[in-house]
Amino acid sequence: MTPLAHTARQLPVWALRDPLCAAWRQQNRLVVIAPTGSGKTTQVCQMLFEDGRAGGKQIIVLQPRRVATRSVAARVAAERGVQLGGEVGYLIRFDDRASPETRILFMTEGVLLRRLQDEPDLGSVGAILFDEFHERNLFSDVALGLAKQLQASRRPDLLLMVMSATLDAEPIAKYLSGCPILRSEGRSFPVEIRHLDAPDHRPPQEVAADEVERILVSGKPGDILVFMPGVWEIQQTLNAIRSIRSREPLTLLPLYGELPPEDQDRVFQSSSHRKVIVATNVAETSVTIDGVRFVVDSGVARINRYDPALGISALRIEPISHASADQRAGRAGRTAPGECRRLWTFVNHKDRPKTNTPEIHRTDLASVVLLLRSLGVKDIVNFDLPDRMDPAAAQAALEMLERLGALDGATGGVTDIGRRMIRLPVHPRYARMLVEASNRGCVRTVALWAALVSGRDMMVRSREESAKEMLELFQTNDNSDFFTLVRAFNWAKQHGFSLDACRRAGVHALTAANVEDTYEQLLDLCEKSGIRGEDARFSDDDLLKCVIAGFADHLARRVDKGTLDCVVAGGRSGTLMRESVVQKSDLLVAAEIRQIVTRDKKELTLLGLASEVKLEWLRELLPGQLTEKVEHLYDRTQRRVACVRLLRYRDLILDHSHQNCTHPKEAAAALAREFLDDEIELPHWNHELEQWLARAALVAKHFPELELPAFDDAAKLECLSRALSGTLLYKEAKERPLLPAFRDYLTAVQRDFVNDLAPQAVTLANDKRFKLIYASDGPPAITVKLHEIFGVKEHPRLCDGKVAVLIHLAAPDGKRLASTQDLAGFWKADYPQLKRNALTKYKGVAWL
DNA sequence: GAGCACTGC
């Protein structure tokens, strides 16, 4: 045993060795809960190896990050005193340090998913350890789902072990059919956590600076780590801390993912002053800084969520979960007892989610759905995962894959195109573009485009003058933003991806260098998938047509010349990013659609990575998805109906041309709709017409056997269209009589019944006639002066006696005295009392 | 009118 290994055996997780060995001899599924510092990542795999449970087969340890995968593998190799790449190895993208001898193999989650495609039974694997499973990355969830299925079918000997740092192990143990849970101690120092006593409504940057000042004043030693949601907030916080009146000199350090590596490294270097590091979430999981004794936590993070219904992702600042807050707090206790100050109240804390939203619930599922289909999973929604896919999100992914031609709409099977796409480690949209590129002989260029967008943003927003000048140099075309990226990349490559040169040009050097690797790998994989061909005779148009193949559903049309506003297919709208070069074309596709929240809290949908589209390309490429239709639209400014031939992709109007009207009734329907939507007035829609509608409705209600039509919106539209047929102009439409069209909607017999059963006036027993008022809700009514009907006992009825008229009884001066639907009863019960009052008030009448 | 963090054959 090496001295390193000897030391490692002191790690807390070694207390679990006997229970672990006992458990995995009886079980093929285990959950291990072990917090930071327990040694689970480096030790459990070695216990398993030494115990021989994997039967000489590989033990795979899944890791979420490449950097950690490398260092952990190196650590285990050192403990065992072996060369990395022998008994202990690792496998990550672009870096393979494994050999046939490797028995303990660390790999990133995506690598395992790809391996499952080549080796569905994982015959050479004896155990899979899912490390950091609590992070709930999409790939680890899917990998566990597939491994569970494999174990339940063809590989019952395969050992699955889920290792997690969160204490809430029950759900995952339940998912693994109630398998045993083993718990280990961590090895870290206690952290005292305090919340705010009362909410502080100032920006967290200011509250955090106050808190830093309080720590400085307290005189307690130790570095301070402040969590902020983004780069802008980090700069604000640093400025606020600079203005603290403190005699203590400080080393102020920002830390975020896009920061160049040499700047990131400064947080690890020792400093003669106390370090105050203001960081994004990168410091929560990816970067660990020793020496931190104080954590100041804003309690918020920017979280990306994908809306499958809209196909748009949105980056928003959200309150973090308990799990996330605990992880942040733990950063204060790595080397000594620490303190964590949370900038939210305990009451607020109780309102927060316990855990982070698993990635499967907040991301585009197209890639994994295609992967699952290719592995024979038919029922995607019910595929047994730790968290099932949201049905709407799975459906949206299936539809996208069908539109791309990767899945057969009828059978759901993977098509030839889909099979060629599967092995490419890019989003299916870009994989589809590459398939198209192979038909057009431009694979190399499109592969570079795909590589350029597969990492983080290569162009950094820079306020430096040189970067702005360079950007203009890169933007020498006006038909695709991809060309700008390519020029920037080529420039960075010519300068050897040098940090200085790239910084001057506003290019993220490390990202650009990664693009090179991704590009080479993509080309290699394209070759293996039969996607090949670059014959130098392709044109820019060919490249842009490839973009349409991947992003047709992101087709957009500029609303006007004055703004960058666009309507996007699928009932969406957005604004073209102002740095886009595609500002002359009316039609474009955007490879990126993102919602952002501005500083003044407004939502904005931005269209980025745009490419020009020409109408004739759409006719060529999407003939089946274009519809051409003559439509009649009411023009509110001209106050007339325009007859327009509209060309659409789905709902998006691509082109229109005015023409002579050949469908008078359709044109009239446009006017009718405008009226029914209350946008215009028609004077002939009057009391008489409304009375007639009410009469017809009353008869329809009491005599269903007459089969009178209901005058619903559709019927009204039909009648109005008939009445207005032949005119396009509002000024003519408003003169048109309307009632005849409604009458003629009934048969002659039906009309006679309406006139008989619901007449306009009713004659009482004393031969006096009274005009009826029909209401839409309630009985028809007449208003009668009381003295006009003295002696009339018989109550008037309509509809063959089924409906009693409502009689409003009025005084000689018209003042309403009473209402009744039973005259005989009225005379008997109410009249005597009424008469006494009336006698005194209306002396000119002979009250009987 | 504008920017979290990871990650894959």
Overall pLDDT: 91
For the biggest β-sheet, the strand order reads: 4-3-5-2-6-7-1-8
Give the biggest sheet.
8 strands, mixed
Which second-level CATH architecture of the largest domain applies?
A: Up-down Bundle
Assembly of the depicted chains = single chain
| Computed Rg | 38 Å
* Helical amount: 25-40%
Whole-number tally of structural domains: 5
Distance between the termini: 124 Å
Structural class: alpha/beta
Proportion in β-strands: 15-25%
Question: What do you see in this structure?
Answer:
The radius of gyration is 38 Å and the shape is elongated. The chain is 39% helix and 21% strand. The strands form 7 sheets. It has an 8-stranded mixed sheet, sandwiched between helices. The protein has a 6-stranded parallel sheet with strand order 9-16-13-10-12-11, sandwiched between helices. The chain has a 5-stranded mixed beta barrel with strand order 17-18-19-21-20. By secondary structure, the chain is α/β, with parallel strands linked by helices. It contains 31 helices and 31 strands. It has 5 domains: 3-183, 3-Layer(aba) Sandwich (Rossmann fold), CATH 3.40.50; 191-361, Rossmann fold (3-Layer(aba) Sandwich); 376-384 and 404-576, Four Helix Bundle (Hemerythrin (Met), subunit A), CATH 1.20.120.1080; 687-757, no CATH class; 761-841, no CATH class. A hairpin with a 5-residue loop joins strand 25 (761-763) and strand 26 (769-771). The termini are far apart. Helix 8 crosses helix 9 (231-242), helix 14 (366-374) crosses helix 15 (391-403) and helix 17 runs antiparallel to helix 23 (540-551). The structure holds one DNA strand of 9 nucleotides.
